[in-house]
Amino acid sequence: MASKVKWVTDIEKSVLINNFEKRGWVQVTENEDWNFYWMSVQTIRNVFSLEAGYRLSDDQIVNHFPNHYELTRKDLMVKNIKRYRKELEKEGSPLAEKDENGKYIYLDFVPVTFMLPADYNLFVEEFRKSPSSTWIMKPCGKAQGKGIFLINKLSQIKKWSRDSKTSSFVSQSSKEAYVISLYISNPLLIGGRKFDLRLYVLVSTYRPLRCYVYKLGFCRFCTVKYTPSTSELDNMFVMIINFHGGGLVNNLRLYLESTRGKEVTGKLFDENGNYFAESSLWGCVCPVMNNDKHCFECYGYDIIIDDKLKPWLIEVNASPSLTSSTANDRILKYNLINDTLNIVVPNGEIPDCKWNKSPPKEVLGNYEILCDEELAQTEGAERDLRNRSGPSIGLKGSRTRETGKTALTTWK
Amino acid sequence: MLQEETDLSVIIAHIVQKLRSSRLSTQLGFQASVSLQKPEIKLESLKEDIKEFFRITGWEKKLQNAVYSELTVFPLPRHPAAPPEHLKEPLVYMRKAQGSWEKRILKSLNSMCTELSIPLARKRPVVEQKELLNKWNEMGTDEPDLSLFRPVYAPKDFLEVLINLRNPNYENGDHLNLRTHLGLIQVPLKVKYISELKDYFIELSLNTGQLGIDDATQVPPELFENEHVRLGQKVLAEQDSAAAQQYVRQGSPTALRAELWALILNVSNQPEDLLYYEQLKSNVIQHDLLVDSLIYKDVKLTASNDDYYFVFEDYLYQVLLCFSRDTSVLGHFAYNSASPPKSYIRGKLGMEDYAVFYPPNGVIPFHGFSMYVAPLCFLYHEPSKLYQIFREMYVRFFFRLHSISSHHSGIVSLCFLFETLLQTHLPQLFYHLREIGAQPLRISFKWMVRAFSGYLATDQLLLLWDRILGYNSLEILAVLAAAVFAFRAVNLMEVTSLAAAEAVLADLSTLKVMPLLQIFLFATVT
C-alpha cells in the first residue's frame, strides 16, 4: 500500500497548501517524519548548518539548495558572474567576446555592479567615467526592496569609503554589505510606465544541470509614472504574459513587434531572454553549487528591459513571493507550484532521492526545458540546439571542460 | 450613358472642391513652384513635366491616396436633388428615431449637470492649469471623486431604443409565418444573404492564405507567411492606400500593421498634425468640461479593469480628452445620421447666435467608449499619432455603432444581419434561445457595439480590425457574432435560462476569429 507523502511548510500560502491537499498528501510538523518540506530561506539555513547535524534521508526533499545564496545573494551572484567571465576569457572562449567599447557581447546581462565596501575604489573609478549616472544601492542580505536607495553623488555613500576618516564602519559582517549597480535609467516603458519582468526557473539538479523555465511570467508595473528621479516603489499592477507563444497570446511580444518591429523583438525573446537564465545557472553557479540530491529550487528572476530592448538581470530570488494580487495571478502561481511538484515529486509518490530526476515530457505542464545537460549529451551535438533555447557557441566547449572538474564547494 | 458621365463629373467636381481647400493642395502648389528650378522642367511641356515630376517624387501617390480617402469616407449624394439630410440618413423614420434618442441623451446630461450643480464647461484657474500640465502624463494617478457621475447611457439602453424602432410604412402582420423575423429588430432592412457574404468576403475563403490561420506555428512560413510579409513591405514602399486596403483583407503582419493602418487611413505624421494635437492639449488644460468626468469614469470602469489595457490608462485620457475638444470631428456629421448636441450660452437659450456644440466635437461618450481607443495603444506609442489614428477610425467606422441609421454598416443593420444569419442557418438554436428568454441579440449586442474590443484577445481583435479596414465595412462584426454562436451551439442548446446562456458566452478570450469566420462563411452547410 502506497503511503501518503507527508508535508511540512513554514510558508502558509494557499497556492502551496491547496496543491498539497489536492494530491492527498498529509500535513505533519517538522519534528515528525516528513517527506516534503517547503521551507523559507531562514529554515534552510538551519537545516544545512553544521551545528544542526541534520541528515536528510532518501525519502526527504526540500525546496532549496544549501548554498543557493551563491545565486540569490546580490554580491555573490555578481562575484560568480565575474569569475565566470574571467574563466571564459582565459580560455579564449568566443562567448567572452567583447565589442569595440570593451563590453561583453554575450555576457553583459547584469548591470555594472560592485561590492561595497570591498570594491569601493574600483567603483569610484567607474563612477568618475560617467559622473551624471545614477547608481542603486542594495543591501546584500535583504529582500523585497528593503533598504534600497539611489545615489548620484559620491558624497551619498561616504560611509562605505574605506579611506574615509569619518568612517566608523569597521565591522564587515556580511549583513551590512551592499552592492551598488548602475541604475537602468532608460527602461523600456509601456504606456509610459516602468515595469520589470518576473520569470520562474526551476532547477531540479545542478549536476547534471536540469533546469526548466516557466512559460508564463509577469510584467509588474509601477503605479506612479516613471521619472529618473523616482525611487523604487511598490509595483502593484501585474500583467501576465506568456513568453513562448503557443496557445496563449504574448501581449508583450505583440506590443513590441507592433511598435518596434519583428527583428529586435525576436532577438529579445528568442535569443537574449533565455540565454542569460541559462548561463547564469550553468556557468556561474554550477561549479560552486552544492548539488545536494535532496534539493530542488524554484527561482524568481527579475529582469528589466531597457529601451534598446536589451534585457538586464537584476536579481534572482530563492523564495519568490507566492502572494497573489489578482485572480489570474493566483491561478498562475497555483499552476506554477502544481507543475513544479509534478516534476520534482513524480506521480505524487514518496520521493526517492536516488532517482535520476528525469521526468517524462508529459508532466512538464507549463514548464519548458531550458537546459538538460544529460539529455543534450546523449543526443549529441546537433540535437542539443533543440533542448536549449540559447545560442550554442562556446558553451559546448566549457561544458566538456566542466564535467572533468571536481565540484567546488564554498561551504562556510 | 449621359447620366453616368454627368454623375462622374459631379463626383470629380465634388472631390476637387474638397481637396482644393486641403493642406495637400497647398503643398502640391509649393512643390510645383519649387520644381520650376529643375532643368528637366521645360516651358514648352510644362504641364507634362510637372506631372512627371510629381510621379517620380511620390506626390502623385499622395494625391491618389487623398482622392481614395475621399471616395472611401464621404458617401456621394445618390441623387443630385437630394437634400443634405439624405446624406446623413435617407429614411425619415430613422432620422426621427435618432432625433428623439439624441434629445433623451441630452436631457440626461443636462439633468446630471443640474443635479450636481456642475457647469457643462468652465475655465480652469491658472493654478489648476499648471497642475494639470504637470501631471499630463500620469492623469491615471488622480483619484477624483466620480461616485456621483453616471455614464450618460450604456449599450443596453441603446438596444431598447433599437428594439422599439418601427417603420410606419411596414405592416408586420399579426400571425407568424415562415418569413417572420423572430429576432428583436423589427424593421425591414436590406442585409446580405450568406451567398452574397461569401462573394463579398471572398478573400477570406478556404483557398486563400490568411494571417490568423496560415501563420500558426505548425504551418511552415514558406507556404504563405513569408510571401505575404514581403508583399506587405512592398505595399508600404509604394505608399499606396488602395493597395494597402486590399492587402490587409488577408491580415496584416504584426510588425507592419501600424504603418499599414496609417496608410489606409491616410494619416501621416506631419508637423502640422503634431501642432494641432498640442493645440487640443492646451484646450484641455485651459477648460474643464463635464464630459471630462464622464471620460474619467469610463476609463476607470472599463479599460483600467482590463488585464491588458490597464497599462495604457494615461494614454486613454490624453486621447479622449483631446478628442472631445476637436471641432474637426464635426465634419463627419455630414454623413452621420446623428447631429451634434447644441448648448446655449447662459441666459441665451434658443438664440442661435449663442449656440455652441457641446462637447466641441459633438460626441457624447457612453459606457465603454474608451475601449475603442485601448487596442490602438498596442500599435502606436506616440500620443499624437495614436490620437490621429483613433480619430480617423472613429469618423470612418466607430460612429456607426451608436447612431440609428439604415446604413449597411450601421448598428441597426448589423443587429438585423446577425439575427437573420442566426435564424436562417441555426434555426433550432435561435428558436431554443428565444423560448428560454435568451434572445441572442441581447448577448451579442455589446460585442458589436464595442467592435469586440475587450472581449477578444488583443492579437485576435487586431486581426478582426484588419478586415474592418480592408473591407471598409463593419458587417464582419455581425458575421463573427453569428459564428461565435455557431461555435458554441452545442452548449447553448443545453442551457435553460438567459443567465446560463450568458455564462456560456462570457469568455471569448480564447477564440481564434479567422477560423471561426472561415468555417461559418465557407464550411457550414446552408
Automatic annotation (TrEMBL), chain A:
It holds the Pfam family TTL. Keywords: ATP-binding, Cell projection, Cilium, Cytoplasm, Cytoskeleton, Ligase, Microtubule, Nucleotide-binding. Its main location: cytoplasm. It is found in: Cytoplasm, Cytoskeleton, Cilium basal body. It comes from the Eukaryota. Residues 382-412 are annotated as: Disordered. GO terms for molecular function: ATP binding; tubulin binding; tubulin-glutamic acid ligase activity. Gene3D superfamilies: ATP-grasp fold, B domain. It catalyses: (L-glutamyl)(n)-gamma-L-glutamyl-L-glutamyl-[protein] + L-glutamate + ATP = (L-glutamyl)(n+1)-gamma-L-glutamyl-L-glutamyl-[protein] + ADP + phosphate + H(+). One of its GO terms (biological process) is microtubule cytoskeleton organization. One of its GO terms (cellular component) is microtubule. Belongs to the tubulin polyglutamylase family. Part of the neuronal tubulin polyglutamylase complex which contains TPGS1, TPGS2, TTLL1, LRRC49 and NICN1. Interacts with PCM1, CSTPP1 and LRRC49. This is Polyglutamylase complex subunit TTLL1. The gene is LOC100921544.
